[in-house]
Amino acid sequence: MDFLIFAAFGLSLWAQFKVKGNFNKWSEVEASSHKTGAEVARQILDGNGLYDIPVEAVRGTLTDHYDPVSRVVRLSEPVYYGHSIASISVAAHEVGHAIQHKESYGALVLRHKMFPVVNLTSGIAPFMLIGGLLLGQLNLIGLGIILFSFAVAFQLITLPVEFNASSRAKRLIVAEGIIRNDEERGVNKVLGAAALTYVAAALMALFELLKFVMIFFQGRNDE
């Protein structure tokens, strides 16, 4: 089990490397439409009736996100002002989340409802698990497993949310004529690498949970 956790951690590091590498590579390739990430986001939002959702620039790199509470698409400055394949891909992906929100996409709705619970349990679970291991208290370990399972479920639910947003992004920028067919490869590279980071995070969390479950049942067998 330790090997699987280590492998998932290695996959996570590799995925982050791929994200940065693909983003940097395709940031140097200007899109044929010459549109900025901000212009693409605005075009897709308006095309889907989301005129009231603003697009804002934020500092940093790969800090792009959709804020469902404030209902704002926030794009990092390289994406907001950039004319590249990478900028267009990331901007369209974040708008995909805004469209999910509008349509009450099931997995997104569930993730939003889980967030307050996960925010609480993810802070408590490590103390329960570590305390249970140090004190040899199976009850604490069991409680920690239950709390940690919420975080794992959140990671797993995030996968369809992210994959669906990327699928929407690809479909929309082709339908809107924002990219040509020969530019789809770059879009797939950028969004595919980003999706891999979520897969790696989910696997690592799942393997960690299974490890603690095995420790719990081993402890019960030893009693």
Automatic annotation (TrEMBL):
Claim: Transmembrane helix is one of the keywords in the record: yes
Keyword annotations from UniProtKB, A to Z: Membrane, Transmembrane, Transmembrane helix
Pfam families cross-referenced by the UniProt entry: Zn_peptidase_2
TM stretches of this protein: 117-135, 141-161, 190-217
Protein name: Zinc metallopeptidase
